[in-house]
Recover the amino acids of this structure.
């Protein structure tokens, strides 16, 4: 923790392996048990691509998370159609070492809803998304599309506000139906004012 305090008091940063425990505490607090993942799962993902998770970190721990998973078109389509489950997605992740074409799956946007500063955290997390998209494009990554599915009423409200559209697609998971949203990177960048 001392090393972290010298770098940054709080803000949005790329998550490191040292952040996994705090990320999972927040994840498990927000999502129902069937959506909980293991530390090994997060570690495997980070080792495949250390640039996937962005977090709002404070001295008290992680207060917000979003994750953009780079996939091939085939794998991305399979995720949004339910052919690849989130527990298996780590096997399909692309890295950013060689500029390439990717389809990004927005795996999560969460903040600590019990914290008095939750709106501030949500704003900072969301405003970081276009910055991350621009950073990836500057690295030579060709982002074709971003997809997500809303698992909560809040998600259904937020996604259209940040450039996503719902064209009627649905995903069945755990006997529940979730709306699928898609966006072009330029629409997300245009919609979120930084």
């Amino acid at each position: 923790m001392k090393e972290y305090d010298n770098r940054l008091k709080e803000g949005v940063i790329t998550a490191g392996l040292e952040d996994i425990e705090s990320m999972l505490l927040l994840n498990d607090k927000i999502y129902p048990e069937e959506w909980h993942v293991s530390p090994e799962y997060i570690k495997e993902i980070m080792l495949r691509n250390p640039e996937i998770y962005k977090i709002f970190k404070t001295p008290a721990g992680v207060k917000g998370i979003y994750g953009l998973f780079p996939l091939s078109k085939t794998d991305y389509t399979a995720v949004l159609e339910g052919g690849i489950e989130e527990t298996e997605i780590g096997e399909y992740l692309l890295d950013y070492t060689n500029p390439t074409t990717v389809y990004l799956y927005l795996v999560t946007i969460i903040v600590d809803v019990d914290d008095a500063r939750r709106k501030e955290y949500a704003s900072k997390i969301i405003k970081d998304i276009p910055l991350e998209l621009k950073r990836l494009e500057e690295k030579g990554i060709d982002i074709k599309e971003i997809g997500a599915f809303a698992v909560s009423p809040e998600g259904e409200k937020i996604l259209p506000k940040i450039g996503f559209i719902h064209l009627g697609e649905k995903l069945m998971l755990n006997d529940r139906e979730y709306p699928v949203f898609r966006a072009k990177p330029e629409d997300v960048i245009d919609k979120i004012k930084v």
